[in-house]
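User: Claudin, Promerops cafer:
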Amino acid sequence: MACCVLQITGLVFGAVGMVGTLAATAMPQWRVSAYVDGNIVVFETIWEGLWMDCISQLGIRLQCKFYDSVLALPPPLEAFRALMCIAAGLSVAAFLMAIVGVQYTQRSKRGPQAVSIFILAAGVAFLLTGTLVLIPVSWTGGSIVRDFYDPEVPVPLKRELGAALYVGWGSSALLLAAGAMYC
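Assistant: Predicted structure for Claudin:
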């Protein structure tokens, strides 16, 4: 009975982590404009994401522009895009493996102690996905904090942590927890 509860809890954590990974990958709020010192342009908010930049004016008008060329992007952004896309695909695969594993374990004739290869594979995939999400999110967060406190960076170029980073950290924690439950 405890095995089934643990598997269902892992499945729920994995599902929420998968949705969070997909959301963090698509959200444009990785870096958000900061209002510090003499920066008086408060009616305009700039969002920078993996796929586009957006400008929100007074919360009424939103203009977004996709990046023109993949080759013109900085190398870290290209790597973060790749890691998040791999993590999104792997999270979907891990979730599907977890569903199959839970069904196999519940229908198994050997009882609740039967070990399913799908459960173990889903656990490893969830752990790997959580790590893949954690790398670009934490790296971006660290660079934002470093640039924010760097006196060499001009005030208009300073950014704050965006909502996508918090979604990424939360989904990474849930994916790692789901992976630990399945392993």
